[in-house]
């Protein structure tokens, strides 16, 4: 079994003004997250947030300690969120099994010693997307299905942003220290997400795009509202969004994405909104 972990250091809003396209992609785009029979992790210096992917096919994969956390176990000082975007999978936490269908989530609290990942069918493997943040308290492990989520219906077909937001690991659904996660699904005919765009300087965020049809892509918008930048994103790739950056996207077809964030507070609507007419 292999765990591959790389580090992304924090980049300031002034530094990116000198970046070319490749430098920008190298710092903020997370590609090759879903690799067969590997655990891929990206340790960021934005709120010490970790992004990762697990695709168990021929073996059970175990989330063991990594050098970056300097701890005996991965969750000694962390909490973990798992969202399955593939076939039926099983996450085992200290001997307790949790089955996750597609788009179901699992919150794993601080202090758990052993977390393993398996697929029910190697021909249709699970694709587990992971987010992890530092934790100061141990909360119970809890599975959250789509039926358990808090659902928001936003946007409209007329503005090309009709979408359903499934708030999975959020305050009011499950207790967490600072981690929040959910899934946004764009409806057929709609392509814009998170519009109007917003910032929240009190926490960072990451978007993991999936269900992008073959041959299609999403253009993810970043940067300050008055000086935006963009990254073209393929299926099952993620973008790290610093606190100073907006986050929004537009696809060449409808798609879904997992959003995850951590930082100062747990108020989902803590955001500074910027109307489309304000963006430059």
Automatic annotation (TrEMBL):
GO terms for molecular function: 4-deoxy-L-threo-5-hexosulose-uronate ketol-isomerase activity; zinc ion binding. It comes from the Bacteria. InterPro entries: KduI, KduI/IolB_isomerase, KduI_N, RmlC-like_jellyroll, RmlC_Cupin_sf. It is an enzyme of class 5 (isomerase). It catalyses: 5-dehydro-4-deoxy-D-glucuronate = 3-deoxy-D-glycero-2,5-hexodiulosonate. Its cofactor is Zn(2+). GO terms for biological process: D-galacturonate catabolic process; D-glucuronate catabolic process; pectin catabolic process. Coiled coil: none annotated. Keywords: Isomerase, Metal-binding, Zinc. Binds 1 zinc ion per subunit. CDD domains: cupin_KduI_C, cupin_KduI_N. Pathway: Glycan metabolism; pectin degradation; 2-dehydro-3-deoxy-D-gluconate from pectin: step 4/5. Its EC number is 5.3.1.17. Catalyzes the isomerization of 5-dehydro-4-deoxy-D-glucuronate to 3-deoxy-D-glycero-2,5-hexodiulosonate. PANTHER family: 4-DEOXY-L-THREO-5-HEXOSULOSE-URONATE KETOL-ISOMERASE. Belongs to the KduI family. This is 4-deoxy-L-threo-5-hexosulose-uronate ketol-isomerase. It comes from Catenovulum agarivorans DS-2.
